[in-house]
Every structure is written in structure tokens, then in C-alpha cells.
Amino acid sequence: MHERLGRIWPPGIRLQLTLWYTSIFVGLLLLTGIVLYVRLQTKLIETYDEPLKVRTEQLIADITNDDGMIDPQDIAQEVSLLEQETLRNNDRKADVNFDALVRILNTKGQALVITPAFHELQVPTLSVMQPLHGDPWQGTVPTADGYQVRLYSTRLMSKSTLFGVIQVGQSLTPLNTSLQKVVEELLLIAPFAVMLGIIGSHWLATRAFVPIYHLTSIAEEISAGDLQRRVPVPEPKDEVQQLALTFNKMIGQLDQAFMQQRRFVADASHELRTPVAAIRSMTDVALAQSLTAEECIAVVGNVNAVAERLGWLIRDLLLLARSDEGQVPLDYELVRLDRLVSDVVATLEPLAVERGIVLQVLTLEPATVRGDISRLIQCVINLLDNALTYTNAGGRVALRVEMRERCGCIVVQDTGIGIAPEDRLHIFERFYRADSVPTRKAGGSGLGLAIVEWVTRAHWGSIQVESQVGQGSTFTLSFPLAQDY
Ligand SMILES: Nc1ncnc2c1ncn2[C@@H]1O[C@H](COP(=O)(O)OP(=O)(O)OP(=O)(O)O)[C@@H](O)[C@H]1O
Ligand SMILES: [Mg+2]
């Protein structure tokens, strides 16, 4: 039981829609019924007013003499006539539904004449007061037994003097009985109408979801293996079209991410294979020949150098792979960019001297940013390493730390070989190395700038590259300044 309830609750969109449609349908049905009933009742009651008025006028004419005077004699006569007419059966109790309902009052509101059935009516005082002041009154009054009577009340004039008020009533029971029959009929039909409403709502909701089911079944067929496939985009510009477009966009992005991943793995294995092959060939040669101790030391030294580079490569690869998954923890703290740059320069100074390149620090403004100091150091080392690698001996590499528009900037400028415009678009891609570089750095894997880009992004920064082939390149990193400096 509980399990079955769990299957329908919380309700799915289709069930929700069906419930909504049905509720609205039933609500509208109920509202229309009530409005129709009330209006019909009012209109039908109004049809009683004219005959009542005519009957009252007739009565007035009967009790008025030719000279316009009201004769109390005539009243008594008229009433006894009415009583005879109504109380044919003497032992019967007066009944508002069958008997005459007439009352005549004097100007003080005292009843001069009243038919027995009229005693049953609960008549408001206004029905007497209003005619005495000149305006006829008509309304529906209840009886003690719960019946309704339409009452017309108007003044009686004896020539030009006010004589009193005459009130004539007519039972509304036949009308109410008919209306009750109508309601009973409607209530009999209502369950069928509601049933039809539920079926119609369910059909509508199901129909509305057909394009979604279609989309789902195609989407289910698309697996990680065939991300080139797309779901068909329906013609009408509606929510389903939007869903299909979004879905296709998502598959496109997934496809691209998978492709990048595959290329990364392929490139990585290729890059790893090269140094391993170098070690193998060096050791093979060494094993095949009987080497002297010095030769052995030289081979081991070479193998050691390749293994070291292999170690760096694996470190970079791991870093990028883990950064893709957001698994590299970054320790954010306040970092002085100027101090960081001067430390890195001090470390790489010997390398610059060795390569015959002049390394200079031009400006060091005290810029503080929030960042992971070791990653920022790695960033500057990678840029400086590139500048020293792609600048020939006799060249110059200059560094600056400046504050520009609420940003701390590190500028690395060299007078090296420069980067061709077509390469500039790709240098931040993993494993990308410009083929045009004549003095190709041995062992460079093309990961340095990819790491720079990731670190910069992780520090909400941006990179700008300006370069002219043969004249040099300028790399500018901008990081937002720490507010709480
Ligand atoms: N300052 C520069 N001057 C000229 N070319 C550059 C400069 N910096 C980068 N490049 C070009 O961009 C490419 C990518 O640089 P990146 O630092 O990512 O890789 P790499 O230096 O080849 O290898 P490594 O992973 O060892 O850094 C380089 O191969 C080079 O062609
Ligand atoms: Mg590099």
C-alpha cells in the first residue's frame, strides 16, 4: 500500500497537470452552476411581480367606489369573498401555498383586514413604512415553515387622502420546486461531467508530453560513445524546442570535453613515450658495449637528466589533470607580488647569466593580492623560463610589478624570437609548441603556459600577450588587488 502510494506521490508533472485541469474544470462548472441558478431564480421571481401588481390593482378597484372613496363595507365584503374562496375546507389549516395572502392596514399600521394564511408570513416593517411614504414595496418574505412568498405592498388612497396599505402575496413554492428539480438533474449529470473532465484532462496532459517522451527516448539512446548524435529540434518555438536546443548544446559541450580529454591522454602518452624511449636507447647502447667507468658515469648522468625532465612532465601532467577535476587545493593568503617576483628573479638570475641574457627588474610596486603563493611562483617561473628560453644570448628580459586599475600586474618582457599571430591563439593549449621556433627548447612539453592560464583563472586574473616575430614578447598577468590590504 505504502509502496503504491510512493509511486504516485509526490505526483509527476502529468498527474499534477491532470489534477489542475480537473480542479479548474470542476471549479468552473460549479461557478457557472451557481451563477446560473442565482440569476435564473432572480429572473423567474421577477416574473411574479407584474401579475401580483395587476392583482393588487384589481383588489383596489374592487374596494373603491365610483367616486374614488374606499368603503370599509366593500373591504369586509371582498375579504369574506376571499376567505370563502380560500377556506372552502373549514377544518384545514391556512396554507400559504394555496390560500389568499392579503392584508390591509390603516395609516397607523394596524391591520384592518388579514387573510388567515397571511399570519404565517414574516413581513418586514419596511413593507408597510415605504408605501406609507409613497413608494410601493416588493420583496420575498419567508414563512415560519420555511416557504417563500413574493409580496407586493402599495398605498391605498381614498380619493386624495391616504387610507392605508394593501399587501398581496403569492407563494414561490412552485418556482422553488421547479428550481430544485433542475438542481437535482444537474447533480445527477455532474459526476459524468467530472468523469469526462478527468478523462479529457488526462488526455490533454498526455498529449502535451508526447514531444517530451519522444525527446527522452532519443536522449536515452545517446550514450557516451556517440556524442556526435543530436536530438531533433521541433519546429514550433516553444519550451520543447528550447529543451532540445539546450540538450544539444550540452551534448556538444560534453563531446568537446571528451575530445579534449582523449587528446590530452593521447598527447600525454606521446610526450611520456619520448623520454622513456631516450632512456631505453641510452641504456641499450650502454648494455651492448663494455663501457669504461667514465663512460658509464656519462650515460648515468644523461639518464638522470632525462628522468628529471620526465619527473617534471609527470608533475605538470598530474597538476593539470587534477585541476580539471577541481582537486587541486589552493591555499589563499595575502601575497606581495613585488616580493614574489624579486625572489623568483634571484633564483633564475644564474640561468640568465649562463645563457648570456640580461635579466632586469624595472618597477616593483607594492601590490598585494589574494592567492596561493606556490602556484603564483610557479606561474612567474614558467613565464620567466619561457622568456629565457626563447631569447637568444645577448637579449634582454625585463620584469615589472605595477598597479593598474585596482589590479596588480606582473609584466614579463623579452627581446626574444617572438610568437607568430597564428601561434598566439594556441600557445595556452596543452602540449602546444610553435613549430616555427628555430631554437626549440629540448624537452619543452608545451604545458608551461597551460599551467599559467589555469593558475591565473583560479586567481580571478587575466593574461595578455603582445608579440612581434623577431622583436620579442610581453606577457602581462593581472590579478585583482586584495581589498583588505
Ligand atoms: N616568451 C616567448 N617567446 C616566444 N615564444 C614563446 C614564449 N613563450 C611561449 N612561447 C611559445 O609558446 C609555446 C608554449 O609555451 P609553453 O611554456 O606552454 O611550453 P614550452 O615552453 O614549450 O614547454 P614547457 O612545458 O617546458 O614550458 C612554446 O613552445 C613557444 O613556442
Ligand atoms: Mg615553457
Description of the structure:
- The protein has 485 residues and is α+β, with helices and mostly antiparallel strands.
- It has 3 domains: 13-178, Beta-Lactamase (2-Layer Sandwich), CATH 3.30.450.20; 244-324, Orthogonal Bundle (Helix Hairpins); 333-480, 2-Layer Sandwich (Heat Shock Protein 90).
- 54% of the residues lie in helices and 18% in strands.
- The protein contains 11 helices and 12 strands.
- The chain has helices at 2-8, 13-63, 72-86, 126-132, 173-221, 239-288, 293-324, 337-354, 373-389, 421-424, 448-458, and strands at residues 101-106, 111-114, 137-142, 148-158, 161-171, 333-336, 358-364, 368-371, 396-404, 407-414, 462-468, 472-480.
- The strands form 3 sheets. A 5-stranded antiparallel β-sheet has the order 2-1-5-4-3, sandwiched between helices.
- A hairpin with a 2-residue loop joins strand 9 and strand 10 (407-414).
- The longest helix is centred in the first third of the chain and has 51 residues, at 13-63.
- The chain starts with a helix and ends in a 5-residue tail after the last strand.
- Bound molecules: adenosine-5'-triphosphate and magnesium ion (MG).
- Magnesium ion is lined by residues 382, 385-386, 444, 448.
